[in-house]
Write a structure and sequence with these properties.
48% of the residues lie in helices and 11% in strands. It is α+β, with helices and mostly antiparallel strands and 636 residues long.
Length: 636
Amino acid sequence: MLSVAKVQRRNAWRYYVRGVAYGDGQRPVGQSLKGAQETAGLPPGRWLGRGLAGLGLMEGAEVSERQLELLFGQGRHPDADRIEQHLLDDGVDPAAARQATVLGQPIEEIEARKQTPLLALDFTFRPQASLIVLWGLGDATTRRVIERAHERAVAQALRWIEDEVAQTRWSSGRGRAKTPALVVAVFRHFDNRDGFPLLHDHCLVLNRVQRRDADGDPVWGAVDTYRLYQYVVAAGTLYTLTMTTEVCEELGFATVPREVTPGLRPVMEIAGVDSELIDWSSTRRRRIEDVLEGLTYTYAQEHGRLPGESACHGLGWQAAQDTRPEKKTPRSLEQLLAWWRASAVLKFGKRMVDGLVQRCRTAGAAIRARVDPHVDTVLAAVDVAAVVSTVRGKFARRHVLAEARRHLLETLRGQEFTRGLDDYIAGLALAAHARQSTVVQPGRPTPAADQLFYAAGFAEPDRWWIAGTDGKPPRESSRYERARVASLAVRNAIRTAPIPPAQQDDAPAATTSAAANTDDQHQDPASAPPHSVDRPGRDAALTPAHRSAAVHAHQQAAMPDVYLGGRTTDPATWLRTPENLERLAAITRAANARRRAIEDGQDPSADPGRPVDRHRQEREQQHRQPGQDQGQGFQP
């Protein structure tokens, strides 16, 4: 999971130098950063990124307090003190000597235009809650595997951003160039502000990169931070997929979907981690949910309706800020591990805590025995395109790529996959199920391929209402729930599509290897036969539709009931199956007809489309029957 925050001038960068670099605590005044880190037992920050070569820094080297102040506070070279003194000794003017250490446009010039300089972006990477519980309560081997996978996943996500995303812009955006070399300062944190386990890394991405000018000389400029924001979700899904897959492969675990918020996308957690342990570690979430309930009630009172999806996100952010606790005193990992274990044993018992890793291995073995380690890329492309088009309407390749990575994590349940398969599925989804919606204006440059937008012709299901539980009001179906139903409808049509005899005779030619297709970067995905399945070892005698149905059964993995938590893409386990859509649509039509009848002043009981509620009729009939105490009140 990945979140982003801005590091700006004035007090914002001091917050990172004094707090984030010190384990999210409040560093004592007058104490050096390195001394405070050593006293508290905290790891020092380290440098990452290919852009370090332009600053004379080494990847993996320790981050000093002065370097942080110069880079993220003043926008100057991390060795500016030595460079400036050397120039002064050579007789250079002090103003010119200082200017020589500035990276790109001076911050003072930006502030003179009444603008707030953006110094860096804080990319915060953290695993799912179940992995955090395993890291905090598992044995030393489990903890080392999770930490190593976390570090590799962060490095891979940053490398992908450098290779595919990072750009620099100048002349108000008229000039652009790729910059596969970022400067990143990484700080490791072990816990949240309540002291419970929360492994996460703060990656401060410097808003300065090097490029070559017209003469070939290196110059420093600003990063296109808007473009970085556009790719945050795709980078976050890459981190989650990479880390989860490595941990599951090395430790024999598997994943299951866990619904955190009704109607929203489930989180793929490690099977075998009890929900009680996740709730024990997620102290911030429980506090946020309590405050969010009051904010939602206030919103409904002010607007006369329940908040929509975008409003829910805003209320969630407000609840998180309102419940943010004060800074804590950082402690070493050894102290935290002892306190976490004591707290968990006291609440759940020693047997439950000691058997956590073994339960996860047992659950993982049961799931892995039922999941085929191959991916049906045809059905994957349908699922990805249907979900993205229903959720977003218009979408770009980055949205499809992020959904393809989610599909791989949900389908393979933590098993390894062919490198580049996510890109292949995204390309197939765009080629087979999307049409370009971006219109190139005459006289204007053609947008880059990754900036083009698309649309798909999938029919979006009608909205329906879902009854509330635990005293909560009913809610409207979310875009994600409607997207899953749209995907199921299209895939069901694919599986039941009649295959002409000519295509049945050519069925063996429709089966290709996923690995071969991903290795061939020049193959056009649209050239594949209809309903072809990229899975090796498929029985060639079956028709493509039958093969799709067979592999679909493997993918969705008929899990034991105990592992069927949350929502999956299997129609048998989906709360709103296609079989129920007609009944839900009838109820919706009846409710709409009743509403229109009331608005027109008609008798809604005369509506023939209104569903009969016998219990309500009996109550109304009893209410209309006069009793011995009725009929003696005020009569108009």
